[in-house]
Amino acid sequence: MALRANPYYKGVCHIALAQEVLLGTDSHTCDVGAFGQFATGIGNTDAGFVLGTGTLILETGIVASLDALVKEFLSASNEEKKAIFSRIAGEADHLKGSTARSKSWYGKIYLTAVKNFMEKGADYAKNEMNWLHSMLNKSIRPAKATEFTLKKNILSTFA
Predict the structure, then answer these.
(1) Both 26 and 73 in a single domain?
(2) How far is it, in rounded angstroms, from Cα 40 to Cα 44?
(3) What is the rounded CA–CA span in Å between residue 135 and residue 27?
(4) In angstroms, rounded to a whole number, what is the distance separating the alpha carbons of residues 89 and 78?
(5) Judgement on whether residues 24 and 40 belong to the same structural domain of the protein
(6) pTM for the complete prediction?
(7) Long-range contacts made by residues 112-115, C-beta under 8 angstroms, separation at least 24?
(8) For residue 24, what are the β-bridge partners?
(9) What is the domain range of residue 32?
(10) What pLDDT digit, counting tens, does each position of 26-57 carry?
(11) What is the Rg, in whole angstroms, of the alpha carbon atoms belonging to the chain?
(12) Are 150 and 61 in contact (CB under 8 A)?
């Protein structure tokens, strides 16, 4: 679906669709939350890329410190996995004090994923990602779609 802004409009213009994330480059971007729309700011270079290609690569949910620990966890022996799990739990707990509430939530997703990986085996992440993908292809509430996308992004580290 191609969207075009009115070429005669010279002010701030946002185009938003239901169940989508609004990307903005100005100070008004954050105002759309009042209308039940999720928005995030992007830089002008990113905006130019979006306008030119119609795509934007977002890695929402990824926490670099936890991602590094997960990669270490995946290559470790069973005994080492337990020690690394403790480090992941500590890092996730550290995120609880973050000023960004979302980081605390991301930490919980990482911790749950590692627990499930240990309990359900190496296929857990692949099976969960397939399920999330199938759910995202259905008509679901925007909040659920956001949650599932975050989980899918985080689980991609395990795959």
Answers:
(1) no
(2) 13
(3) 34
(4) 17
(5) yes
(6) 0.64
(7) 113/70, 113/151, 113/154, 113/155, 113/158, 114/70, 114/73, 114/85, 114/88, 115/85
(8) 41
(9) 1-58
(10) 777 767 766 666 777 777 777 777 777 766 66
(11) 19
(12) yes
Cβ 39 vs Cβ 24: under 8 Å:
yes
pLDDT tens, residue by residue, 52-79: 776 666 667 788 899 999 999 999 998 8
Domain count, the chain: 2
Task: Output the domain CATH number for residue 74.
Answer: 1.20.1150.12
Residue with tokens 């999720």: 38
Nearest-angstrom CA–CA distance, 118 and 112: 10
Three-state helix/strand/coil letters over 9-60: CCCCCCCCCCCCCEEECCCCHHHHHHHCCCEEECCHHHHHHHHHHCCCCCCC
